[in-house]
Amino acid sequence: MCLRSHHCCQNRGIWAAPVSAYRSAFGGSExxxxxxxxxxxxxxxxxxxxxxxxxxxxxKVMAVLDMMLQRAGEVITxxxxxxxxxxxxxxxxxxxxxxxxxxxxxxxxSASQQCCIETIPKHGYRLVAEIGDVAAPxxxxxxxxxxxxxxxxxxxxxxxxxxxxxxxxxxxxxxGISEEIINALAHVDGLHVAGRISTFALARAELSLEDIAAKxxxxxxxxxxVRQSGDVTRITAQLICADDGFHRxxxxxxxxxxxxxxxxxRVAKSSVANISRALDLVHEKHHPDTPIREQDLFEMFLEGRxxxxxxxxxxxxxxxxxxxxxxxxxxPTFPEAWAFLAIAHYFMLEYQHTPDWREHLKQAxxxxxxxxxxxxxxPTTTVPxxxxxxxxxxxxxxxxxxxxxSERMPGQSLAEFHLSTILVGCGLMRQGLEHLEHAxxxxxxxxxxxxxxxxARHILGDVEDPESAYIEAFGNGVLPAGLIVAWLMTDxxxxxxxxxFLEKHFAKLTPLLANLxxxxxxxxxxxxxxxxxxxEARDQLAEAMHQRIEAGEVQPNSxxxxxxxxxxxxxxxxxxxxxxSTTYLPGALxxxxxxxxxxRELRAHPDFPAFARELGMPEVWDKFxxxxxxxxxxxxxxx
Length: 639
Prior knowledge:
Helix content: 55-70%
Distance between the termini: 54 Å
Number of strands: 13
Largest sheet: 6 strands, mixed
């Protein structure tokens, strides 16, 4: 029940007794379960259930809710919350805003409704939802357990295997076997497999198995190790139940140290068979025989694949391209090597600004065609195919490819994630969010996913602090995200903060801006265009970028589409979309559906209907629904 209409004094009278009573009933400060509005909150499990959805909430975010519950009905200043929960000098505002956004979403609330958490402008927050009964302490344990979230019994997270070598190096060998198992498990019908990005990140944060499984909301964890002694390599793999810590399967594999490829294949096949059996899943699919790879060639592939995953354009990606290029030169029948070579070249376009971008795009397209020709149905060739489709610039064809891939890989999150990006890129926020939230259950720590999630929710009015996810993405090398931060801050009347952020990070942004504007990309001109919304500065930048596009000098990346929206130049945006391809086309388009002044002007431009038709948007809308922001009458077929 929303109590915002109640006077503050009435709220204090309602809240004080129940909250203290709940805490004393459980013998102290820890509050296992309580109902807040329509949400059921389990503090012990750090879980919030509302409207049939379950959200696993990180400790600091739950601590914010706990503090608000202790002082329910009272206004708590932002300063008090930041000091109590984080006690940091910098970054506290972003962390608190993100925590409030997460809590509102988990409890079925939003920044526009504020039926659970009320914002007190320029001051702080107040918990205004009604507090419901909590389970009695003498309640049987099994009844309490029923209130916990329903974790799928058929869910597995595969951690990177530890590498026990004298040097302590070559972690890519342990990562490699984990990826082989992840790829093999992806073929098991009915099994949910956690994504590599989130699983590896959590494992390297040195969390316990129980904490990793809880954060991912998965029932089982696979871990293992790789040891080498003389000419023998021993791999140990084990399936562990996160709930009780017991092993459901464990096995050791010994093999020739000079035949890692064959040993990896045995481990992956045995893992699929034994994990399927342990989880009562039927797996009857045939494991196709693959050509034997030479030892040094296979290790070179593993190292190149690991470097590709790092996405660090200044160091790792050139290393990846060099290694994987040598692999396919020696063995042109290696589809996985071709696939990751394509991905590395595509990543170079987004993560590093280079004069050789034309060659990178050419090689990315060539490597994609080679990988698909060799293994059209392999999971590893899916990503380069989707990147290639984005560069072709037709969203309807892109959507058809995603649907076809989804039919071949039912239940897997990759195709669903890409479908969600297409939907939000076409303005279908609610439909896209449904798919995105489901896909991100397997990959909750994806920077691209969290940025897209934040943008979509912000457009729907459900996120108070949309820039926090972009700050994180910018910190991980996504340069356009830095400009988005300053732009979104400006739109929320936080010009001083936007200027500070831009000034602090301008040197890091310089390569991106020089690619778009050449020598016109000075700090004064950029800040005036984005933060001050100065038309003269915007015109100067627009003309500079127009000339560079016409001369073929703009490297293809998402910044080429985002910046014209930020500076409010619709024609420049349409020119860039037509002539500068990008690996992340659908994700870049999401910002034209926002509530900023620039986005509204772009959608209202008389050339926008024709532009949307060029991208195949109406075909996507006919299949999935039309956005509220679009007048369908403008899109009637003209004969």
